[in-house]
Write a structure and sequence with these properties.
This protein has 2 helices and 6 strands; from the N terminus they run ααββββββ. The chain is α+β, with helices and mostly antiparallel strands. The strands form 2 sheets. A 3-stranded antiparallel β-sheet has the order 1-2-5, with no helix packed on it. It has a 3-stranded antiparallel β-sheet with strand order 4-3-6, with no helix packed on it. A hairpin with a 5-residue loop joins strand 3 and strand 4. The longest helix has 31 residues. The chain is elongated, with a radius of gyration of 38 Å. The termini are far apart.
């Protein structure tokens, strides 16, 4: 066994750290606060710039007007022809193109045609076009329209 010499033990009082010393020990110095504040400010400014750029790109950068196309009906003319009636709403004086399609009973596309929509003095105009198909079609639809 080992004997302990109690006289050899020295009792030292624990050092009391100043609040600034504790802050420095755990990384909470004024310099770190300034650096963190700068990082948050730069990150916030970058986020604000991104949001403003997105709003400008998505909302205000709309060249031209809007275009709306609506199916009004289709008529099966014969085994290889479908007549499609549709209505296009677009800015006055603009031209557009529309892709029309014919579908068979399994909803496969069996006919396709791109038609030019002329400029008009009215916002909404109606049209009827025929589309040829490779087999018996059961319906005719607008696939998509776009301003030209």
């Amino acid at each position: 066994m080992t004997a302990i010499d109690e006289d050899a033990l020295e009792v030292r009082p624990t050092a009391v750290l100043e609040p600034s010393g504790i802050a420095a020990r755990y990384g909470r110095t004024p310099a770190k606060k300034r650096r963190d504040r700068l990082i948050y400010l730069v990150a916030g400014a970058a986020a604000a710039i991104i949001v403003v750029a997105w709003v400008l790109w998505a909302g205000l950068d709309q060249v031209g007007g809007t275009l709306d196309a609506e199916d009004k009906g289709s008529t099966i003319v014969d085994a290889r022809t479908v007549s499609i009636s549709y209505q296009v709403s677009m800015p006055v004086g603009q031209t557009a193109s529309c892709a029309l399609q014919v579908q068979n009973q399994a909803h496969g596309i069996v006919g396709w045609r791109i038609v030019a929509v002329p400029a008009s003095t009215r916002y909404t105009t109606s049209y009827t076009d025929t589309v040829l198909s490779s087999e018996q079609g059961v319906t005719g639809l607008i696939y998509r329209c776009w301003l030209t």
